Amino acid sequence: MDKTKIKEKIESLRREIEYHNYRYYVLDSPVITDSEYDRLMRELIELEEKYPEFLSPNSPTQRIGAKPLEEFSTVAHTIPMLSLANAMNKDEVIEFDKRVKKLLGVHEIDYVMEVKIDGLAVELVYINGEFVLGSTRGDGFVGEDITQNLRTIKSIPMRLLESEHVVIPERLEVRGEIYMGKKEFLELNRQREITGEPLFANPRNAASGSVRQLDPKITASRKLNIFCYAMGQIIGIDLKTHMEFLDYLKKWGFRVNPYTKLCRNLEEIFEHYNFIKSIRDEIPYEIDGTVIKVNRLDYQAQLGQVSRSPRWAIAYKFEAHEEQSIIKDIIVGVGRTGALTPVAILDPVNIGGVVVERATLHNEDEIKRKDIMIGDHVIVTRAGDVIPEVVRVITEKRTGSERTFFMPDKCPVCGEPVVRPEGEAIRRCVNINCPAQIKGRIIHFASKRAMDIEGLGEKLVDQLVDKGIVKDVSDLYYLTKEQLANLERMADKSAQNLIDAINNSKKRPFNRFIYALGIRHVGEHISTLLAERYKNIEELMVAKEDELINIPEIGPEVASSIVFFFHDEKNRQTIEKMIKAGVKIEYKEEGKKPLDGLIFVFTGTLKRFTRDEAKRMVESLGAKTSNSVSKKINFVVAGEEAGSKLDKAKQMGIKVIDEEEFIRMIKEAGI
Ligand code: IVH
Question: Which of 140, 419, 539, 563 counts the most CB atoms within 10 A of its CB?
Answer without folding.
Answer: 563
